[in-house]
Amino acid sequence: MTKSENQRLHYFIDKQEILELINRYCQAADRHDPEALRALYHTDALDDHGAFFKGLAMDFIDKLPEIQAPMEILHHNVTTVNIEIDGDYAEGEVYILAFHKAAGPDGSIDVLIGGRYFDKYEKRDGKWKFAHRAVVTDWVHIQDPSAVNLEHPFIAGSHIGRPGADDPSYTFFKLIKRQTP
Known about the structure:
This is Nuclear transport factor 2 family protein. InterPro entries: NTF2-like_dom_sf, SnoaL-like. Residues 14-133 form the SnoaL-like domain. By secondary structure, the protein is an alpha+beta fold. 27% of the residues lie in helices and 43% in strands. It has four helices and six strands, in the order H-H-E-E-H-E-E-E-E-H. The chain has a six-stranded mixed sheet with strand order 2-1-6-5-4-3. A hairpin with a 5-residue loop joins strand 1 and strand 2 (54-56).
């Protein structure tokens, strides 16, 4: 293999590891799994979730149980991903669609957000993790009251996703491991 081919191979391996990091973030957030999220950030990483939080990512993760408590459904979907890598440093602009069904004092509402993550990643000790993540909202659609109906006869008998260890994925998979509370 030539030096150029070897460099390209390492570039694509690094890019794939970063893509897996991004996907694991969505999985951990949707399952309300703070310990899985904690493993994705460097200990000195920053997180900027706007009005919800701005500061050290570990402090944000500590506050997540409170922030996520009213979230009956979280469903993050990654769409367009642009990543640039320079050695052990990388940046990503990650487009997302994030659905939230949140309980409120007058009943549940649906919030669909189209946005982006502005990410900075660092590879330390051979492992890519978030060094800084900022959340940008491009648009939002709110349905009040919620239009989600998990009792409709059309989905009778379906497996229904849930936050935490009650999600069907915890018992279905052998290879895809989950943190347990």
